[in-house]
Design a protein that fits this description.
Chain B: GO terms for molecular function: metal ion binding; protein heterodimerization activity; protein homodimerization activity; tRNA-guanosine(34) queuine transglycosylase activity. Chain B: This is Queuine tRNA-ribosyltransferase catalytic subunit 1. Chain B: Belongs to the queuine tRNA-ribosyltransferase family. The complex is a heterodimer. By secondary structure, chain A is of the alpha/beta class. Chain A has a domain of 99 residues. Chain A has 14 helices and 12 strands. In chain A, the strands form 4 sheets. A 4-stranded parallel sheet of chain A has the order 6-5-4-10. A 3-stranded antiparallel sheet of chain A has the order 1-2-3. In chain A, α13 runs antiparallel to α14. Chain A starts with 12 loop residues before the first strand and ends with a helix. Chain B contains 16 helices and 16 strands. Chain B has an 8-stranded parallel sheet with strand order 4-14-13-12-11-10-6-5. Chain B has a 3-stranded antiparallel sheet with strand order 1-2-3. In chain B, strands 7-8-9 form a 3-stranded antiparallel sheet. In chain B, α7 links the parallel β10 and β11. In chain B, α6 packs across α7 and α7 packs parallel to α8. The N and C termini of chain B lie far apart (47 Å). The chains are: A alpha/beta, B alpha/beta. Chains A and B meet through α1, α3, α12 and α13 of A and α1, α12, α13 and α14 of B.
Amino acid sequence: MQPKDLEEPLRMKLSLTKVVNGCRLGKIKNLGKTGDCTMDIPGCLLYTKTGSAPHLTHHTLHKIHGVPAMAQLTLSALAEHHEVLAEYKEGVGKFIGMPESLLYCSLHDPVSPCPAGYVTNKCLSDGEATCDEATSIKRARKSVDRSLLFLDNCLKLQEESEVLQKSVIIGVIEGGDVMEERLRSARETAKRPVGGFLLDGFQGTATLETRLHLLSSVTAELPEHKPRLICGVSQPDEVLECIERGVDLFESFFPYLATERGCALTFSFDYQPIPEETLLQQNGTEEEVKYVDQTKKSKTTSCNQEITSFEINLKEKKYQEDFDPLVRECPCYCCKNHTRAYIHHLLVTNELLAGVLLMMHNFEHYFGFFQAIREALKSDRLAQLKELIHRQAS
Amino acid sequence: MAAVVSPTSLESAPRIMRLVAECSRSRARAGELRLPHGPVATPVFMPVGTQATMKGITAEQLDALGCRICLGNTYHLGLRPGPELIQKARGLHGFMNWPHNLLTDSGGFQMVSLVSLSEVTEEGVRFRSPYDGDETLLSPERSVEIQNALGSDIIMQLDDVVSSTVTGPRVEEAMYRSIRWLDRCIAAHQRPDKQNLFAIIQGGLDADLRATCLEEMTKRDVPGFAIGGLSGGESKGQFWRMVALSTSRLPKDKPRYLMGVGYATDLVVCVALGCDMFDCVFPTRTARFGSALVPTGNLQLKKKQYEKDFRPIDAECACPTCQKHSRAFLHTLLHSDNTAALHHLTVHNIAYQLRLMSAVRASIVEKRFPDFVRDFMGTMYGDPTLCPSWATEALASVGITLG
């Protein structure tokens, strides 16, 4: 019965419904030009290339259920069209044909990130992008310093710009795998009036354990009521690990990578299936659920672009006469209308439609996964979902 | 060499075409085809989806554009995925999930386009597969057998195709052989009640040979006739004369399908000459090269001049691409590696072709086709009198004068 506070400006607000074992469930409200858009967290952003979902026109994109309210644009792809956009004057959202969509502009394309050391006037953070090298302390310190400097400059520019008043600036947390620097970056960035935080450089450094430990330590330093995004992490098992460590938003390039390898996502996220169906759920009829020795998991990253255990490779000869849909009971356009045999044919004959149909399915499947995460959190069943996903990881 | 007239195994073939209107000046007709998968208004342009797909647009998108018939190709589908698989998938309709009509070419054209991989004898065409080096014989019987398995609504006879630039005895040989092959196709056709077998008139650019072919083939009671062997490298002057000769000798109550024609001007002229159905890879292929079709020609959207052009491709076009996107955005997208750019243009170009045919048809029904032709030429060439001379002559031959 509290009167509405009319003085507080309508700005982006994260309201948490609950926090369970470090996992946050909630909504980001007051988004968009009119301030009435909402995003659910944990959630993902729609991955785009040059302002368009890969392979998809507006028509085919909107056949997908559960498309996120916010799309990710890449600055490096759009920067070269700066002049055109300036002359257009009506904003990039309208230019790309997504005037109603919320837009997040990241520096880099997670699929083809900048090599380390590539710092130009386009970049607003200085991140270490190579997967293998350990970061030196000096390098980590420099990246944190530079990033804070860039952030302060950006905030100043925003203050002075009328156009940017309604935009939100995200601070980037750097520091490589040096704990001290990570903490410093987190604390310092948190002091600035940013709208949220991007956790950069967690997509390849060191071992999984180190990475996750750093991540936990970083998010512990961040204010609860501002969203945390992570870049370069998109694989289902890694997504869950990050959510458990306080991450809210992810990129959706994993379904895109699967599409490019001619694969369809088939992993199950139905953690409460009807008992008889359990064995038939995953990956069609033939493949068995794989059990993984948890202690052996030392793979580093989702940088690698090999076929994962979350998908099937439609180019395989065994799908030539398989008239089942990609995933049984999947409500997507591809599964409702086409068969594995047809997709196989399109791949073998190098037809463009293969990419279109696979992208439609893979996005829908992936967005469905996030919906399952939110539902699991709501009903306190995340442990079951996590166990199901880990059974399918290899 | 007289053609052997074999008794047809087809009873009086159904009249699948109903004439709705005829131009009182030219030979243009508006009609309706009654096909197993629904009616099709004519004149009609049929987009080509060679390998059971319309090049990056979904069956639903194609349906939404108003397409009611499109093409598949026997040669390609016969190799991959093969007729047995398609049959298991409930025919080509089932395999690609296309609810409307399909027309399959017999594989004859590949004899010309893949001439280095093929060898023609009376038996059929021997092809060497580019994929695995295997040899296949495509005979009239085999072509019909594959098309029976594909289940397309209209199937084409296997014809002996020679390039229109070939002269000499080979042209005559191919013409007579096509007649014999037509009879073999008719005899081999297992599903005349479900699939309409069309004959293909050959004879190259020789009026006498064409006339002979017309006389012989029209004795066979097939549901429709195609005019083949044109739209290769011949001059436009020779082209239109062969089309006009053909339509003058083909029965009025059966559809005339002019194969391989798809440029807007050619479509309009050939409708005037009396053709009802057309197919061509041009609109969809040119889309994938970044070219958008418009009433004044085409826009090469990759060019720098479109970088800041914030207008749609065509302000009058109702297609999804023109409703949502500017030339500038498409230009940007075409310079990226996102295939969506190609799909936007494919959608638009198909919409353009279908809209053109729709407008042509409406003008025939409303008895103003000659005016439509003049307007069309005016838009395309700046002035009706500036249209290419072959087109002017062709139109004049059927009573339409420009300017």
